[in-house]
Amino acid sequence: MLNNINRSNCFIFGVILAIAFLVACGKSRPKTFTVGIINLTSSLDVVADGFKDGMAESGYVEGENIAYIYEGPTESIEALGPAIQRLIEAKPDLIFSITTPATILAKQAVEEIDTPIPIVFCPMTDPVDAGVVDNLRNPGGNITGVKVGGHVQKQVEWLVKIVPGVKRVFVPYNPNDKSGIQGLMQLQEIVARLGVEILVRETPTSKDVKKATTAIPEEAGAILMLPDNLIVSYVSDFSKAGIKRSLPTVSVSFDQVKAGTLIGYGFDNYSIGKQSARLADQILKGTKPGDLSVETADFFLTINLKTAKAIGLDIPNNILQQADNIIY
Question: What is the domain extent for residue 165?
Fold first, then answer.
């Protein structure tokens, strides 16, 4: 009788071990995702930082369940194509494209492969006009992201409020960047109503932009930088030129104001990176990119009081109270 009980116990114990072994073998290791990042300019590296932090907040831990492929900013449009091809050859689960030129080229390259890689983009002024998505609510295809357009008109309005009497604004302009083209169109729509004249100078190359920083027209009463990656990569140069001439400078983001411009109205680079991560998370969990509406970034007013003091400008308290960020 005792032997039968022992044999029964041994049998049950053996079954439990077998089940435990099968369960252990059946457990799959958590999937590790690979995300490729393509970026045109070092001034937007903070967007990539925001994206990674946003992904971490959604549970993607680098080195555990996510890996990033990022060679760093290409610093030229010509280098984007080869960099994108290298990303595609690595077969990532998703591509995060930073800037309009990077997104346009990434979309074109991905459409040529058998198994398209989903793309999340930011920042783009007008993804519909750029031909990246069909419409904002239903992007279609294999791409979605965050747009930042619509702030240029408010930039001019804030300039006129903060610097009453400004009549002529110097605008360096890159005709090779879709964002710059769209920004200039928005600018042209509002300046006549505000009684402001824009002095446009085409700067299609880095050499041209550098020259423009030292060739600001004498009649200019302010400098405005469009949402163009080539132009804003020289934000520090334009800020110094503005201070030297006691001219207010207007840009887009907090980082650009931190670099020395007087006023910034537009998106925050780090925040739009985190915003893009929320879209990427949904895609990696199975949602089709084309079913995710293109989101719009929040806009912020930033004022640099150090620059105001340097150019001899006193900004009223009622204006400062409306600012989202003030740099002292």
Answer: 152-266+301-327
